[in-house]
Write the structure tokens for this entry.
Amino acid sequence: MARAGLRRLLGRPGTSEPVTPEPDPADGAEPGLPVDTSLVTDAPRPGDDGFDVVVTVAESAYRDGTHLAAVAAARAAGAASVVVSAYDVHAGPTSVYPAVGDGDGHVAARATVAATWGGAVAAARPLLTSASVVVQDASVTVPLDGYGRLLRALGQEARVALAVVRTGDDVVASAGAVLPRATAPVASLLRGHPAEDAEALDGVAVFAADEPCFATRTADLAVPVRTVDTRTAVARLTRDTADGADGDCVVVPLGRVYRTTALRERRYDTDAADALLAWGGRTDDTATAALGRLGFVPGVPSADQVGAPVALREPIVRAERGQGRLTLLDRGERLRWSIRIAAHPGPRGDDWGDTFFARDLAAALRSLGQEVVVDHRESHVRPFSEHLDDVALTLRGLDDTPVHPSATNVLWVISHPDLLTPAELARYDLRFAAGPAWASRTTSSTGLPVAPLLQATDPARFHPGSQDPAYAGLDTAFVGKTRAVFRPVVRDAVAAGADLAVWGEGWEGLLPEGVHRGVFVPNDELPALYRSARVVLNDHWDDMARDGFLSNRLFDAAASGALVVTDPVPGVDELFHGAVRTYDSVEALRALVGVGFVGDGEAATAEQRRVRGERIGAEHSFARRAAVLLDAVRSARAASAR
């Protein structure tokens, strides 16, 4: 048992509620410790530098070792000490638990489990000895650089720095708390908004935090209140801390900070109602200032108090359009676009082609003065914020996406055309397809206009240049995963005797020795690989090749100056000015790979590759595709307004 925990078991200063062990009801088991309802008021002993981290953890998660990841991250970030404190807001008066103990890289605040989150923080306060402290629940992930960014945000005015926390579907759980009405519960700012909205709030002041992930000066950290409603406890602690230091709570977007457990609705007790009385005379205008950064205003505040004080409902601050949000630019009004993709949110979707495609398209639309958010498959419906979207653009891949109830709905089919049905097409206001042959045939068969719009590249990244030393001597390259079977172009290249290098998942055991070079190439390294290879191989799904859906790899590789060999696709030979050649047999592939591309009787020179690559990048940029989409949307909206 931790010495600090044992010391507190025997009675602690600052509380009149000593805790004594009771036997566990299970016969023969180690004695369990009763839930600790005390609230330690002992002060911390702050030093002149460094930072500590308090990791609060639900008791069941502690038994599962959930806190260990947070401990490891805090230590790797340079924390002087990590204090782990367990709690269980579901505990009853007879609840008993095994002792909480020290571990590798952390100490236990005490051996007992607190009855509230605030009680867990209070138990940790006396053990803090550094100048600053980060309070983090084990259910909230923080990137390694996040601790330093929170601490650097603290200053003369900023006394509490709070992280923007997302839910697992990559929408905002909270960008801070605002007070819609005195003595009512706080509301989570930007709850249910896409993560891009929160990025604009860096450094903005809010009333408080309501997610347990924030930093402050150790000397400022107030005594928590006692309530089982964790959001109220966090809000009181952060607001009391800021008030005591005569400063503000400020928002710090850290990127991927996730709550790994489901976002609970509030669980009130009379202590929560009492805690809210402290704000009886307060008003809060931080929501107006924060939303103003986004061109929004708060809607009519709501804080339904039916059944108060033990059944207060969840208040929501609904963002609405501000009067000046639609700004007239040189290309017309600014619209808010939601780009919807089939990729998973977070790290699971990082290597999806849809993710990179959406990012490049979003950047191109923003360069045209548009406001853009990207919604992954779990956030295609956003009840709290979708009313703000003007355009819902679906990049159709694997998923049939619900259309937006009020926006202009645009479909861009970029892959898997056989999955589309006439009923799905009919739901959209505008339709585009990256396969011209499919677009023409579908328009004829359904009577629904489908305009051709090819895939694209970003010439700011994919452009000709010198070879990268990391890929020196690279001859014939293929980048792509497989599903434990040979992809035809790779199988044919092996049969043709090409000097081949392959990157991608699933190739283990399929390729000759030395051919498989790795399972993943980061997207930001692809331009260097393409520029360095003499030949880049490409292939298509059968339905995409049949209907002229040109792979995005063709545009990226050709714009980089690479020489590309691919399977036959209608129109590909003319489109790329000779930079892309098709083959239909192993012999044809051997001829292409063996001698390079022949132009005027000679292989393409480095200068020819440069000129050709720059031309392809200019003709097939995402900026050009974005301009087509924007013009079509504006025309459609103007027509519907008449």
